[in-house]
Amino acid sequence: MRVVLNLLGLCFVALGVIGMFVPVLPTTVFLIIAAVIFARSNPEWERRIMAHPKFGPPIRAFRERGVIGPTAKIAAVSGMAVSSVIGFVTLRGVWAFVPAGVCLLCALYVLSRPSQ
Predict the structure, then answer these.
(1) What is the pLDDT tens value at each position of the chain, 116 positions in all?
(2) Backbone angles phi, psi at 78, to 5 degrees
(3) Residue 75 exposure: Cα atoms within 13 Å on the Cβ side
(4) Which of 34, 63, 99, 103 could form a disulfide with 80 if both were Cys (CB 3.0 to 4.6 A apart)?
(5) 114 Cβ contact partners less than 8 Å away, ≥ 6 residues apart
(6) How would you classify residue 87: left for phi > 0, otherwise alpha for psi between -120 and 50, otherwise beta?
(7) Which residues lie closer than 8 Å to 28 by C-beta, 6 or more apart?
(8) What sections of the protein cross the membrane (predicted)?
(9) Closest CA to 58 of 12, 26, 82, 80
(10) pTM of this prediction?
């Protein structure tokens, strides 16, 4: 099971790295998930993620206090809004409303988190 969790954690790290270069793909969210997985399978890798100078502080803030910073909130909700519009324009029928519905629920969660 440990090997499976390590592989899953590495997949989330890879998604986080890809997110550094793809504007609509989040980075920190995937690294938070990777840190949670590594906490159960490889504490050293979890420590390395948590100690990262750029991504460590927001990951620690979210894990310890549920905090999502104001800049991250703006970026997340803006990205969700753009995704919702793209989904509405490109999809047909009832499917056109699905991205907006999912994004609305996610945005409500993000906005409900403390900022500090």
Answers:
(1) 999 999 999 999 999 999 999 877 888 899 999 999 999 999 999 999 999 999 999 999 999 999 999 998 998 899 899 989 999 999 999 999 999 999 999 999 999 999 98
(2) -65, -45
(3) 12
(4) 103
(5) 65, 66, 67, 68
(6) alpha
(7) 16, 55, 58, 59, 62, 72
(8) 6-39, 94-111
(9) 26
(10) 0.79
76: its two tokens: 């997340």
Q: What angle do CA 61, 64, 70 make, to 5 degrees?
A: 30
Coil/strand/helix, residue 2? helix
In angstroms, rounded to a whole number, what is the distance separating the alpha carbons of residues 116 and 111? 12
70 residue type, one letter? P
